[in-house]
Design goal:
three-stranded antiparallel beta sheet, globular, mainly beta
Length: 72
């Protein structure tokens, strides 16, 4: 889960991006919005070209440990 802490009005870029069927999907988030996603799946943040983007990331696991390496 990623929670946007910054005010997007003060940041250029920095969109949270997930991928569906290989295509990027940017998520329009406001301060305080959260997105819940499978962290093992491809995701990223678009380049921040102005300002500072801050977020809080929380990883929740149903099993005892992550059995799959992130970069495999």
């Amino acid at each position: 889960m990623s929670i946007l802490l910054s005010d997007p009005a003060g940041v250029t870029g920095g969109d949270f991006v997930t991928y569906g069927e290989g295509m990027p999907m940017a998520h329009n988030m406001r301060r305080g919005d959260a997105i819940l996603f499978q962290s093992e799946k491809l995701h990223n943040i678009s380049t921040v070209t102005k300002g500072i983007r801050q977020s809080l990331v929380v990883e929740l696991w149903a099993s005892t440990e992550n059995a799959k390496g992130r970069f495999e």
